[in-house]
Known about the structure:
Elements: H1 2-27, H2 36-83, H3 88-98, H4 103-127, H5 141-164, H6 167-209, H7 237-257, H8 273-280, H9 282-301, H10 312-322, H11 328-343, H12 348-358, H13 362-386, H14 392-420, H15 424-455
Helix pairs in contact: 2-3, 2-14, 2-15, 3-4, 4-13, 4-14, 5-7, 5-9, 5-11, 5-13, 6-12, 6-15, 7-9, 7-13, 11-12, 12-13, 12-15
Amino acid sequence: MRNFLDFLKRMLLPLTILAIAHLSASQGTQPLSQPHGLEHLLPQLSRRGKQQLDLQKEESRAEFRAIIAWILCFIAASVSSAGGVGGGSLYLPILNLVAGLDLKSSTSYSAFMVTAGSLSNVMYNIFFTSPGSGGKSLINYEICLLSEPCMLLGVSIGVVCNLMFPEWLITALFAAFLASSTYKTCSAGFKCWKLETEEVRRGEAFRIERGGNEVDDKGMEVPLLGGGEVGGLRVPWKDLVVLLMVWFCFFVLHVLLGDEDGKGVTNIKPCGVAYWLITSSQVPFAVGFTAYILYDKKKKRLQPQSQQEIDGKDIAVETKIEALPMFVFPSAALFTGVLGGLFGIGGGLLINPVLLQIGIPPQITAATTTFIVLFSASMSMVQYVILGMKGIPQASIYAAVSFVASAIGLAIIEKAIEKSGRVSLIVFMVSMVMALSTVSITCFGAIDVWRQYTTGSYMGFKPPC
């Protein structure tokens, strides 16, 4: 036993000395009597504690920025819904600057929010009657049918132009067009306000002539607010089926083509033969659907008036639409679609002032534009989901905020119109959204142009591939 203990002393003592020497060499020339482990453990714990505090502060900042972004998106959604536009041009700067999302994530989140807000608006217009509409839906499905195919085609053309045009030209065209549209829309709002003031004066004079008695709403001339069906909820299912077919056909083509980064469900080479065949196939689809819709519309016009489900108030709107050339709405939709794809914004902000300039009443314009935006925005949203979008739960929260805010905004504007009798409030809402969009997106574009200029990037026209 004693021999064994002597053996351990002779073996362990050199090993212990070697281990201590190795630790001293690795830690520096310090006395062996100092507590090396404790001396280095405390700074590590301090650094870890500081990192955790910084992480908690960053999470708190992110939560605070998210709450502020929710509040601003709520306000933007309520205002956009009241004007009948999607609001994507307002969501993008909020998501990018306030919420701190990158531009690609902001675009995908915006598609969710526009879809949710448009769905809320459409459901409100279908299931809740307007006070001045006599119980009818304000959505004009005929305008939607004539506009949707050419608008989707125009967006595809505009996207190709966006790849070819320099950033400075896109920014300049956007600022010029939207500033001009804002001015014209605001002028139309003031004209509408003057006409409504004259109507109010005539109503007051008529009330005084009747000895101060209240004038029945049915006895007053109501602005052109019709466009739907009478006697409860009656959806034109045939028109809706055609719209869904248009949506599905263009959706399949877009999914096959993929996004701007070339990511799709198939491995189609960008700018290859198959790519351009699929892209060009959108033209016969749009022309075919539009031709069928125009033929069906012409056939309905030839029917006796008694067979058409139009009441007295709807005749004024239908007469105004029928007085226009048949290709006005497809042409306007193609034009606004090209501009929407070129500027990278939704078509609602562009087609709304166009319809107002054509002469469509404001409430019908707002409801119909929202219905059109629902189809185009939902196509982008579903495409993002299929192609593997990240952050769907967070995007769903923003979409829920937009859904609730849109319903509240629309209810408020309906009450304001009912109380004041001024439909021009919608026109002023559209003007305000357009003015804010002009400032925000023009500033974004100017920043990109300046970045390209300072970095010496190429600023001329580019090939599409």
